[in-house]
């Protein structure tokens, strides 16, 4: 029986090929998702081993849960984000660490984000979504994993070293002139050296900065200049090489014994630190694999229909052979086994192709990322476990798809099978009733969700569950109901073809009703793909329409200003904009970090704004209170969502607290005086020694002592004053009143205070401008004003000035970029559906060989036969497309209502896109009919008529 199954598989290899494509695509997504996840995991591990290469790390000993213990933009020795946060530690712990036996000179490694490198041509150097990061490094405090291939470390603010990738992207060489845009503007620099690292940096532009420069700009972004989150320590026990695990533990123990108890610091081994950071970062990227697996499920789900139709075709053509086997004594399970053998062969072939395709897909993605400026060094080859998973998935889907046809072959009565009367199609009424009930339940869940969303209420279990349950019920319900809809759909959709082409049109619509289940299964392949695509289309169109509505009806200002680097607009750039003539008002939103309300942070943003925010930028949609008056009077203006979450109303008194680190003038003065006293004492001792040496006529000793006095004096003159700056934490505690609650979409999750309150609650380091809105004076030429604004911000390279249309276009393009990849991946389900239509028509042609022969014998032309099959295919495609569009648009409408409070305020249905899908479905059907029609016309008329 195995040999018979293999023989049948060889006989139907062409039809197997179409099913193999469906399996291969689904398995490719499965294997590709695992490969991509492993590539990202390997990349993270490689980068962590390179970027966090210290032997021991000293960090806080107290775990914090609300982020209070970490400084903004402070010093770090590694990259990545930890799931746990610890209290910050004093920077001056380096003195304690330097006294520990077995350590190289210790200093804090400062990093600065949000930089921009400008090449010699004046062009900003950037890559796709990757940051530009400056890291403090010098010969005295090197980065062990950095190897200089040219030049050397930077010295002073005027020099910078480049990572090899940054040098490649910028075209800069050692000695070239360039610019680096810092928070306070652009600085001229010279390239001092080029270095490489073992791991690729995933497209990041890495700059080596003089440690003092890195500290200066890191401090500008931090409210705790005397604190850091972590201090890295290199050990000397291995001769300059990384310490072994045991050596790391010994060094960490010695450091822990030396750390003062009041420092709240603890040393951990580098291996433990890297493992923790690697795991956290890998987990944060874990959403990628489920996303890709979703498309794998879609592809395999759609492909299962093709597999079922393929085996239905094979079983139908081989039914007489199976009946003969049964009549000579073959057991039903033996016949079943012959079909299973074919399914196993198909599954193995499709899975093997899918594994290779998935591997190639990830290699292609990696190559594409490299071309776009994000090179990755993580391995992409699938592991044995990945290949086994893909193989098992492909086999399982194939066996499931082949099981029903195999059962039909095994248990059909031999006499009926020989007479070709086997298994006439069952009535679809009962199935239609079940499908209709499921659809009604799903629609009821959606309607309930929609009504609650419109009223702004909350469901006891949230709106996500009824939304998801309704989608599952409707999708399953439509698939179950579809056979009952084939007859009415064929008559309705075939009405126009039947009148335009009286013979072929009527024959095509009648032929569809002869195999309702098979037709419905084929249409289901398109239904699933189009439902998802059209749902995303409605959501995307609504998102863009909502943004356009905000700009067109809500935004009053003429220009918006953003920063393309860290998002922070440099202070000098802000002042340059304010100095431009022709502006009526400049509104700068300054974000306040760390503000707490009644002891808790709100789930949103707190920022300070000018009075012009509600008069010249966005007119407030006031739910209660007067927003303009509240902002002027120093009361809180609260977004509707936050007010609802916290139970606030106009008149509610809220205790607002912030903790800011400020310069301790007294402590700083004492530190400076102590240093001066120390220098004076040292100079006095040396002068006394010089006097003694002069008295004893020790010329050599006197000369050396005089040199020491001069060196001490010079060192005192050149000492960095910042090292004496002492800070203290000042807690601001104010009772403020809620003055207004507003429902503007852009401010639903915001708490707004005026500038005066903002200055009291925050500091210059913790408050920064992210966006500015500019309103022109009446009568100004907006085009000329825009050019003046561009000229004003040109020296800052990264500051973008956009008018209203550009602002709206930018917001819409962000939505399009997100959906582009989704559309491309979901298009594969439509490709698979094409193979399904081909299979269905091929099976239909096989079953109607004699019928088609008779039609040709009585004068039907070859063109009419092709037209009949083309109309059949087009009706199937349109049927599936209409089902998908109906369900997808309905889903999009409900999703838009559910997330209206999050920005989807305007419902927009993309009718043009829907029309394009319908037109495309007709083309898909016609293309899919070409191969079956050719097969139908190849067979001579007499052979077809006499076919048994």
UniProtKB/TrEMBL annotation:
For the region Disordered, give the residue spans: 60-85
Q: Pfam families, from UniProt?
A: FtsX, MacB_PCD
- UniProt keyword list: Cell membrane, Membrane, Transmembrane, Transmembrane helix
The listed locations are: Cell membrane
Give the residue spans that cross the bilayer: 291-315, 335-367, 387-407, 428-449, 469-498, 519-540, 818-846, 867-899, 911-930
Check the record and name the InterPro entries matching this protein. ABC3_permease_C (IPR003838), MacB_PCD (IPR025857), Macrolide_Exporter_MacB (IPR050250)
Describe the location of the MacB-like periplasmic core domain by residue ranges. 17-201
**GO CC terms for this protein?**
plasma membrane
Q: Where is the composition biased (Gly residues)?
A: 68-77
Q: How does the protein's chain sit in the membrane according to the entry?
A: Multi-pass membrane protein
Which terms in the Gene Ontology molecular function aspect does this entry carry? Answer: transmembrane transporter activity
**Highest taxon in the source lineage:** Bacteria
Q: Describe the location of the ABC3 transporter permease C-terminal domain by residue ranges.
A: 294-414, 824-940
Q: Which family does it belong to?
A: Belongs to the ABC-4 integral membrane protein family.
Give the protein's recorded name.
FtsX-like permease family protein
Origin organism is: Bifidobacterium avesanii
């Amino acid at each position: 029986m195995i040999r018979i199954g293999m023989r049948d598989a060889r006989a139907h290899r062409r039809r197997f090929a179409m099913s193999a494509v469906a399996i291969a695509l689904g398995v490719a997504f499965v294997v590709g998702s695992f490969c991509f996840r492993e590539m990202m995991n390997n990349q993270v591990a490689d980068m962590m081993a390179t970027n966090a290469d210290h032997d021991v790390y000293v960090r806080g000993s107290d775990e914090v849960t609300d982020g209070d213990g970490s400084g903004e933009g402070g010093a770090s020795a590694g990259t990545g984000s930890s799931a746990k946060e610890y209290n910050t530690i004093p920077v001056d712990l380096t003195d304690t660490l330097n006294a520990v036996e077995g350590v190289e000179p210790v200093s804090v490694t400062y990093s600065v984000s949000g930089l921009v490198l400008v090449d010699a041509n004046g062009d900003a150097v950037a890559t796709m979504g990757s940051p530009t990061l400056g890291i403090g490094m010098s010969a005295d405090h090197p980065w062990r994993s950095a190897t200089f291939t040219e030049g050397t470390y930077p010295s002073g603010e005027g020099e910078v070293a480049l990572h090899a990738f940054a040098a490649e992207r910028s075209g800069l060489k050692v000695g070239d002139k360039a610019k680096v845009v810092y928070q306070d503007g652009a600085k001229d620099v010279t390239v001092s050296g080029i270095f490489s690292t073992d791991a690729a940096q995933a497209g990041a532009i890495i700059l080596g900065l003089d440690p003092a420069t890195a500290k200066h700009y890191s401090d500008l972004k931090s409210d705790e200049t005397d604190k850091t989150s972590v201090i890295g320590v290199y050990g000397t026990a291995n001769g300059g090489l990384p310490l072994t695990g045991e050596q790391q533990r010994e060094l960490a123990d010695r450091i822990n014994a030396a750390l003062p108890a009041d420092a709240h610091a603890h040393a951990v081994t580098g291996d433990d630190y890297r493992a923790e950071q690697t795991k956290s970062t890998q987990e944060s990227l874990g959403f990628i694999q489920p996303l890709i697996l979703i498309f794998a499920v879609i592809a395999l789900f759609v492909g299962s229909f093709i597999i079922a139709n393929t085996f239905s075709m094979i079983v139908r053509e081989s039914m007489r052979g199976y009946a003969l086997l049964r009549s000579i004594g073959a057991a039903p399970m033996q016949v079943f086994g012959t079909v299973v053998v074919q399914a196993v062969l198909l599954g193995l072939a499709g899975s093997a192709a899918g594994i290779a395709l998935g591997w190639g897909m990830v290699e292609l993605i990696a190559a594409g990322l490299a071309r776009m400026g994000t090179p990755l060094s993580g391995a992409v080859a699938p592991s044995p476990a990945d290949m086994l998973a893909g193989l098992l998935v492909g086999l399982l889907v194939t066996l499931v798809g082949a099981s029903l046809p195999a059962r039909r072959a095994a248990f059909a009565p031999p006499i009926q099978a020989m007479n070709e009367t086997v298994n006439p199609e069952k009535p679809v009424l009962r199935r239609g009733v079940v499908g209709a009930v499921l659809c009604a339940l799903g629609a009821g869940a959606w309607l309930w969700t929609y009504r609650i969303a419109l009223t702004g209420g909350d469901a006891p279990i949230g709106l996500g569950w009824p939304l998801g349950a309704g989608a599952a019920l409707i999708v399953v319900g439509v698939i179950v109901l579809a056979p009952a809809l084939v007859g009415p759909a064929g008559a309705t959709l075939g009405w126009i073809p039947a009148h335009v082409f009286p013979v072929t049109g009527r024959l095509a619509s009648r032929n569809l009703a002869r195999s309702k289940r098979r037709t419905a299964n084929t249409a289901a392949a398109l239904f699933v793909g189009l439902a998802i695509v059209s749902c995303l289309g409605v959501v995307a169109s609504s998102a863009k329409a909502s943004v356009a509505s905000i700009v067109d009806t809500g935004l009053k200002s003429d220009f918006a200003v953003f920063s393309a680097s860290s998002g922070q607009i440099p202070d000098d750039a802000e002042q340059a904009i304010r100095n431009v003539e022709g502006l009526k008002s400049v509104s700068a939103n300054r974000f306040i970090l760390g503000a707490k309300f009644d002891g808790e942070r709100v789930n949103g943003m707190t920022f300070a704004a000018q009075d012009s925010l509600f008069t010249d930028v966005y007119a407030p949609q006031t739910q209660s209170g007067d927003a303009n008056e509240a902002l002027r009077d120093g009361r809180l203006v609260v977004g509707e969502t936050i007010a609802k979450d916290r139970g606030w109303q106009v008149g509610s008194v809220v205790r607002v607290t912030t903790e800011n680190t400020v310069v301790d003038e007294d402590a700083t003065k004492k530190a400076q005086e102590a240093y001066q006293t120390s220098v004076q004492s040292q100079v006095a001792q040396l002068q006394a020694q010089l006097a003694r040496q002069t008295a004893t006529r020790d010329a050599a000793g006197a000369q050396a002592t005089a040199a020491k006095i001069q060196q001490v004096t010079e060192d005192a003159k050149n000492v960095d004053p910042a090292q004496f700056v002492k800070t203290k934490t000042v807690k601001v505690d104010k009772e403020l009143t809620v003055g207004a609650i507003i429902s503007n979409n852009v401010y639903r999750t915001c708490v707004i205070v005026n500038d005066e309150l903002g200055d009291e609650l925050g500091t210059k380091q913790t408050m920064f401008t992210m966006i500015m809105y500019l309103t022109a004076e009446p009568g100004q030429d907006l085009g000329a004003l825009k050019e003046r604004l561009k000229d004003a911000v040109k020296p800052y390279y990264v500051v973008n000035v956009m008018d209203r249309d550009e602002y709206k276009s930018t917001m819409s393009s962000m939505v399009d970029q997100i959906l582009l990849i989704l559309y491309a991946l979901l298009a594969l389900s439509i490709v698979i559906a094409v193979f399904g239509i081909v299979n269905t028509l091929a099976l239909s042609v096989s079953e109607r060989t004699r019928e088609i022969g008779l039609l040709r014998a009585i004068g039907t032309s070859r063109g009419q036969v092709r037209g009949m099959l083309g109309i059949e295919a087009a009706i199937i495609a349109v049927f599936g497309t209409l089902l998908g569009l109906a369900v997808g648009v309905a889903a999009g409408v409900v999703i838009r209502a559910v997330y209206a409070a999050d920005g989807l305020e305007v419902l927009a249905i993309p009718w043009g896109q829907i029309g394009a899908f319908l037109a495309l479905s007709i083309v898909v059907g016609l293309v899919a009919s070409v191969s079956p029609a050719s097969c139908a016309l190849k067979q001579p008329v007499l052979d077809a008529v006499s076919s048994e």
